[in-house]
């Protein structure tokens, strides 16, 4: 345990702090008091918070008023003293585990302690050089494709290591999916204090679930904070990438507004993720429609829907955000549903963070760190054990186990409460597959929107698109002035669009075959030296957690690989086929026990062969452990000539 006091901190204004403490999350504040005082009485009865699994938990943490007042009074005294001197900076693994367990009032596996110490910035997450960083920039050049969250965090870590790189971005700005998806109601469905980078200045999020514009602003500001913009080539689309055996480097062909160019890098990273290519179904008559028709990722900036008849094809995450946002403005909204989705109610989803809560996050030492922990923990691995199949469960057609059945009943109760006497809608909106079998969605006014007189949920299959709307197989004509394709993305394409050609002319598209992407740890592929994927196959999160956490884990692995290659004078590495195959076998074995392999449904998590390709079967902890340090014995190594 590191109890070395930090540099003295400036005392906080007593009146301002006293006012702000009224809005404090007391379980978080309790951890701050312990850091500041080092007094173990705060980790003993009567200061145990009440366990609360809600995503936005009760800030009072179940404390009696007199205990709550005592915690606030202690914080006030410690933070306004002449000497504000935290007694515990990095608790070490043992005490960190005790603090986490006390904070959440849960039994937490010991492995989470080092993981969370890194994520909360108590210890560095950067890869360390064995001795000292090279005095001169190393003879290494990394080409990153994509300036979304994954590409940005990798760029920032490379910059801190002094390793040269360039990010190639097809768009005109950073942000990836948060730049491209500007549809009405677009926002994050992960609490953004967890869906954010572990390094950089604290962003003053206005709420727990932020809209697209705020996330886009955050990524742009973060890019400028770390000086990444000068390393990015915008409006630059990769057309082909070829491994050059003679130079031990990748030749990356691109198209730009000024014509074709060629970049060369010793290492190539595909940071384009799984949401890069919209999935647009082939529907007869699509070219006949007279009005605007577009995918949600290509929402026209000047589109005015007031008084229009709008058709939304699909009922996934985007549709559930769009419909409640526009329903009050349009004349008629027709929503075409192929299959119903499970949606969880999230009380306080739209709540703004008070100015007092914002002040605490910005000014109270350790408060933002433990607030981040509480959000990431509640939306992390806790659900995963309950997504495993119980072989003795008597109702496998509708749920997997006792807890899964309880979750199902809770969501059915919510549907029935929201839709009331509309038994037709209740039947149409209740899925027949187990909860969490597809991506779980958040009810942000979805069911109440379906009750509006100008909204129609259409469950008949689409026959064709006509000049003035949509015709269904029951012969009904649904007039529309605008058609929105809320049909998701081609999740299994991943890095195919880069057209990588590896060693001996092997083509990634051929290796993966039709719709069957695989990679060791979701990051490296046999036959493709120094080629790394981010948000690759078997790394998406279906059980909770943060995609940015995954990106940081992958960044750690990739930077460790590059640093070790520099230090050992290694020209290239590629995973051994045996190692790759063993990982894929483990993925498939794990998925066979989990909900996403349930036969009673289709989901974009699975490919056309029935394999679960998109999401990971591993917990955040397992994946963090797998990717923390590269094992070069897993790789075929070619030394520098």
CATH-assigned fold name of the largest domain? FAD/NAD(P)-binding domain
Count every helix, treating DSSP H or I runs of 4 or more residues as helices. Answer: 18
Number of domains: 3
Radius of gyration: 26 Å
For this structure, what is the CATH class of the largest domain?
Answer: Alpha Beta
The parts where pLDDT drops under 50 for at least 5 residues are 1-5
Shape: globular
CATH architecture annotation name of the largest domain: 3-Layer(bba) Sandwich
Q: Approximately what portion of the residues adopt beta-strand conformation? A: 5-15%
What does this structure look like?
- This protein is an alpha/beta fold and 641 residues long.
- It has 3 domains: 14-125 and 356-381, no CATH class; 142-276 and 491-639, 3-Layer(bba) Sandwich (FAD/NAD(P)-binding domain); 286-342 and 398-431 and 435-485, FAD/NAD(P)-binding domain (3-Layer(bba) Sandwich), CATH 3.50.50.60.
- It contains 18 helices and 21 strands.
- The strands form 6 sheets. Strands 3-2-1-7-19 form a 5-stranded parallel beta sheet, with helices on one face. A 5-stranded parallel beta sheet has the order 8-17-9-10-13, with no helix packed on it. A 4-stranded mixed beta sheet has the order 6-5-4-18, with no helix packed on it.
- The chain starts with 13 loop residues before the first helix and ends with a strand.
- Mean pLDDT is 94; it is low at 1-5.
């Amino acid at each position: 345990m590191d109890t070395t006091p930090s540099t003295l901190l400036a005392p906080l204004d007593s009146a301002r702090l006293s006012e702000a403490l009224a809005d404090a999350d007391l379980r978080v504040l309790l951890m701050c008091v312990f850091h500041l005082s080092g007094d173990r009485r705060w980790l003993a009865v009567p200061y145990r918070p009440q366990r609360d699994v809600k995503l936005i938990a009760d800030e009072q943490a179940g404390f009696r008023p007199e205990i709550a007042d005592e915690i606030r009074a202690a914080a006030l005294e410690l933070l306004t003293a002449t000497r504000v001197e935290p007694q515990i900076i990095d608790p070490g693994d043992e005490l960190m585990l005790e603090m986490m367990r006390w904070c959440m009032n849960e039994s937490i596996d010991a492995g989470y302690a080092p993981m969370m110490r890194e994520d909360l910035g108590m210890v560095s997450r950067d890869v360390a050089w064995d001795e000292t960083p090279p005095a001169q920039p190393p003879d290494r050049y990394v080409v990153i494709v994509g300036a979304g969250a994954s590409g940005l965090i990798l760029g920032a870590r490379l910059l801190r290591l002094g390793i040269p790189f360039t990010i190639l971005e097809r768009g005109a700005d950073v942000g990836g999916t948060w730049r491209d998806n500007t549809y009405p109601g677009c926002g994050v469905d992960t609490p953004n204090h967890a869906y954010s980078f572990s390094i950089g200045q604290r962003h003053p999020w206005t709420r727990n679930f932020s809209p697209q514009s705020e996330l886009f602003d955050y990524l742009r500001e973060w890019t400028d904070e770390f000086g990444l913009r000068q390393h990015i080539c915008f409006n630059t689309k990769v057309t082909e990438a070829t491994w050059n055996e003679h130079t031990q480097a990748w030749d990356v062909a691109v198209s730009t507004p000024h014509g074709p160019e060629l970049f060369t890098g010793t290492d190539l990273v595909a940071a384009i993720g799984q949401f890069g290519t919209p999935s647009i179904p082939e529907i007869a008559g699509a070219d006949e429609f007279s009005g605007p028709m577009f995918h949600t990722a290509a929402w026209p900036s000047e589109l005015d829907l007031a008084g229009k008849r709008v058709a939304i094809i699909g009922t996934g995450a985007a549709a559930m955000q769009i419909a409640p946002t526009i329903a009050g403005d349009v004349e008629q909204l027709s929503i075409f549903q192929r299959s119903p989705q499970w949606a969880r109610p999230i009380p306080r989803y739209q709540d703004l963070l008070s100015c007092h809560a914002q002040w605490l996050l910005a000014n109270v030492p350790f408060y933002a760190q433990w607030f981040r922990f509480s959000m990431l923990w509640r939306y992390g691995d806790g659900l995963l054990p309950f997504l495993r199949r119980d072989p003795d469960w008597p109702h496998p057609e509708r749920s997997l186990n006792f807890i899964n059945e309880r979750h199902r009943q809770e969501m059915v109760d919510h549907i029935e409460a929201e839709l009331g006497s509309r038994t037709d809608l209740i039947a149409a909106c209740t899925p027949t597959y187990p909860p969490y079998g597809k991506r779980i969605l958040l009810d942000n006014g979805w069911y109440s929107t379906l009750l509006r007189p100008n909204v129609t949920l259409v469950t008949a299959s689409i026959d064709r698109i006509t000049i003035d709307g949509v015709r269904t197989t029951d012969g009904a004509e649904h007039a529309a002035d605008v058609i929105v394709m809320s049909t998701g993305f081609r999740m299994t394409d991943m890095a195919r669009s880069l057209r990588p050609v590896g060693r001996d002319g092997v083509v990634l598209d051929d290796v993966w075959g039709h719709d069957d992407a695989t990679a060791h740890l979701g990051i490296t592929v046999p036959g493709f030296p120094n080629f790394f994927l981010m948000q690759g196959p078997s790394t998406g999160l279906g059980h909770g957690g943060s995609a940015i956490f995954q990106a940081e884990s992958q960044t750690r692995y990739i930077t460790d690989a590059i640093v070790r290659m520099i230090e050992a004078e290694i020209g290239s590495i590629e995973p051994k086929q045996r190692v790759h195959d063993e990982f894929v076998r483990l993925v498939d074995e794990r998925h066979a026990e989990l909900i996403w392999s349930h036969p009673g449904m289709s989901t974009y998590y699975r490919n056309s062969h029935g394999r679960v390709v998109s999401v990971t079967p591993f917990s955040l902890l397992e994946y963090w452990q797998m990717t923390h340090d590269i094992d070069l014995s897993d790789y075929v190594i070619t030394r520098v000539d």
